[in-house]
Amino acid sequence: MPESNEIITINSRKFDGAIHRKWKAELIGRKDSLLELVGVFEFEVNHPHLGFIRRGTISYEFYWLDRWYNVFRFHEPDGELRNFYCNLNMPPTFNNAVLDYIDLEIDVLIWKNFSFEILDLDEFEEKAAKFKFPADLKIKTEISLDELLKMIKIRQFPFDFK
After folding, report:
1. CB-side exposure of 119: number of CA atoms within 13 Å?
2. Strands 19-31 and 34-40, sheet pairing
3. How far apart are CA 54 and CA 42, in angstroms?
């Protein structure tokens, strides 16, 4: 089991297993199935939904090894809350300081005022057809999206940040 403050590699994979994005973050806590990490954007990013993300933006990342989503809480370089961003994914694996997860395309963007939008439902349907997602995977994704939206609406951890 890794010690806190260990540097972790995160691999976001497509359904076929190909790495889509890869980055490093520091493990700052582990409780039961929850891993809490923190990272800092080393480069500026222009994201189609998040807009311009400045270098130095802080990313608090929450991964549950038994849940079908993860949560990112972004803070501006000065520490001010920027927004939350969530991915629907198959439960990650965590071995030898590497966290791997299969991204299922659906994302949820939550702004500081807790308004939110569900993104990429069409991409999920395209991938479901292309890769012939089993019915139980589609059902589990739908249930997990509902669970995540409920957490956002009632501001349950990790959305209880003020």
Report:
1. 15
2. antiparallel
3. 9
Strand partners, 69: 88
Q: In sequence order, which residues have a C-beta less than 8 Å from that of residue 73 and are 6 or more positions away?
A: 59, 60, 61, 62, 81, 84, 158, 161
In the numeric block, which tokens belong to residue 161?
């940040």
> Which residue ranges in the chain fall short of pLDDT 70?
1-4, 162
Question: Which residues neighbour 45 within 8 Å (Cβ) at sequence distance 6 or greater?
Answer: 52, 53
Q: Which of 117, 119, 93 shows the shortest CA–CA distance to 33?
A: 93
The type of residue at 63 is Y
Burial class (CB in 10 A: 0-12, 13-18, 19+), 18: exposed
Note the pLDDT of residue 149: 98
> What's the pTM value of the predicted model, to 2 decimals?
0.93
Give the pair of three-digit tokens for residue 63: 């991964």
